[in-house]
Amino acid sequence: MTDVTVRRLGPDDWRTYRDIRLAMLQESPEAFGSRYADAVGFDEQTWRGRLTSCEHHLAELDGRPVGSAGLWAQDGGAQDGGAHDGGAHLIGMWVDPACRRRSVGARLVAAVLERAAATGHDRVRLDVVDGNVAARRLYERMGFVPTGVVQDHPDAPGTTESEMVRLL
Fold this sequence. Notes:
The chain is α+β, with helices and mostly antiparallel strands. It has a single domain (4-167), classed as Aminopeptidase. Helix content is 31%, strand content 32%. The protein is built from 5 helices and 7 strands; from the N terminus they run βαααβββαβαββ. It has helices at 14-27, 36-39, 44-53, 104-118, 133-141; strands spanning 4-8, 55-61, 64-73, 88-95, 123-129, 145-152, 160-167. A hairpin with a 7-residue loop joins β6 and β7. α1 packs across α3 (44-53). The longest helix is centred in the middle third of the chain and has 15 residues, at 104-118. The chain is globular, with a radius of gyration of 15 Å.
């Protein structure tokens, strides 16, 4: 069995994050609210900024980066001293297709859930592209349930995404 590890990235990991983000935008452009053509031109400062404005977790399989997931907290987490009502969001979830079905995705989701709980959140929300059956099944296995909120995908006309939530 291969060894999957997950770690939080910091600003000094910007090159690693850039590489995994560009890979995900190329492989699954319909799944994300940003585009490869835009991201490929970002400079070092922009990539570092993305790692300070949002927590990103990196999955490595035998030491090789194979996936990423972010925790975006619009209210800053536990810094204001109390529990929160949904300000935590799992974003930017992706696993290299060659490494899917090897618990990489589950490990990433678990890391985000653990971090959200540790920072005082009582739930985590996410949006999943309708039709992405594998991702939806993973989220359901991890305890997420649909909220009934469906919206148009911001960058894919004719595509919708559904919100899911997991109580912590």
